[in-house]
């Protein structure tokens, strides 16, 4: 997996627009003909001039390393990063981009693969479908969008994987929630589920797939699920060397740990990229991230958003 510390200065080699306020950006290296390899599900960090860092899935073909392709949806109510890229980035511009990292890998499995994408969540799923298609593995990709005219990358998808494995679900034609329930209420033998999309879609798929066994459901979120509105409580972190780090209610664990002198890398600071992940040894975390699997939650912690009750001993 690449390190977010490795920053490449890539040049915007092409831009085109897709439905749903989405702009597809192709990035190349000015001198090197090939970029670092990536697996389907990988993302890169894009560093913006104001210091913000945003993560974008690589939606191009992992076999074509002459370029990276990202798709940026303009979110006017977002945190500003995507709107800046959408509005300001032009062909020829230079963008600092990290090496690819993958928190959403395709697992080796003999069973069928079910890929579910909602809107712009098609980006990591498209790269997965390309690879599964090439490998001749059994899979179905279910693409959910408000309508055909608002579905980004649909033509690319149809050209890349063909109609055989692709199922479309548009809100203006069918009851998409009912479709999700129909798809996931029974798990085909040996099946693995991968999904990505906006908050409501993520919540619906998570709810309907609750009965799938641990280790068979994989997802990537753009933002953490909506939290209860309980006010954050102060808690205490203890480091491996015994240092006690108080975390006040108005401060993140990440910021408190860093203030105590621990060098901990971070990127999104929003609980979605996994860069700040660390282990915990004792205590009761309150997980608020959108990265860790249920299995991982028994021993891993995301300090940029998660908290704890009482004392949490970290493996740091
Ligand atoms: S910095 Fe991205 S999950 Fe913490």
Automatic annotation (TrEMBL):
Transmembrane segments: none
The protein's name: Ferredoxin
Keyword flag Flavoprotein: yes
Lineage summary: Bacteria, Pseudomonadati, Pseudomonadota, Alphaproteobacteria, Hyphomicrobiales
Residues annotated as signal peptide: none
Residue ranges occupied by any 2Fe-2S ferredoxin-type domain in the UniProt entry: 233-316
Coiled coil spans: none
UniProt organism field: Sinorhizobium saheli
Protein keywords: 2Fe-2S, Flavoprotein, Iron, Iron-sulfur, Metal-binding, Oxidoreductase
GO molecular function: 2 iron, 2 sulfur cluster binding; metal ion binding; oxidoreductase activity
Domain FAD-binding FR-type: 5-107
């Amino acid at each position: 997996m690449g390190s977010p510390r490795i920053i490449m200065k890539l040049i915007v080699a092409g831009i085109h627009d897709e439905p749903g306020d989405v702009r597809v950006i192709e990035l190349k290296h000015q001198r090197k003909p090939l970029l670092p390899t990536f697996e389907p599900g990988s993302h890169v960090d894009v560093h913006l001039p104001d210091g913000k860092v945003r993560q974008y899935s690589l939606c191009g073909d992992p076999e074509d390393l002459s370029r990276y392709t990202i798709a940026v949806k303009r979110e006017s109510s977002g945190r500003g990063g995507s709107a800046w890229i959408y509005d300001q980035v032009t062909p020829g511009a230079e963008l600092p981009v990290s090496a690819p990292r993958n928190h959403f890998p395709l697992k080796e499995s003999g069973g069928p693969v079910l890929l579910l994408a909602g809107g712009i969540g098609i980006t990591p799923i498209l790269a997965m479908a390309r690879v599964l298609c090439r490998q001749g593995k059994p899979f179905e990709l279910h693409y959910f969008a408000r309508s055909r005219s608002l579905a980004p990358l649909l033509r690319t998808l149809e050209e890349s994987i063909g109609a055989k494995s692709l199922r479309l679900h548009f809100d203006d034609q069918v009851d998409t929630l009912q479709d999700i329930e129909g798809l996931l209420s029974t798990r085909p033998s040996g099946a693995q589920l991968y999904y990505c999309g906006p908050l409501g879609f993520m919540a619906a798929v998570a709810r309907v797939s609750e009965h799938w066994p641990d280790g068979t459901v994989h997802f990537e979120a753009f933002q953490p699920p909506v939290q209860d509105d309980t006010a954050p409580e102060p808690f205490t972190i203890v480091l491996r060397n015994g240092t006690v780090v108080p975390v006040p209610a108005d401060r993140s664990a990440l910021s408190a740990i860093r203030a105590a002198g621990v060098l901990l890398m971070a990127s999104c600071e929003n609980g979605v990229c996994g860069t700040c992940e660390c282990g915990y040894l004792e205590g009761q975390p309150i997980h608020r991230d959108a990265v860790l699997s249920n299995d991982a939650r028994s021993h891993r912690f995301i300090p940029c958003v998660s908290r704890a009750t009482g004392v949490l001993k970290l493996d740091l």
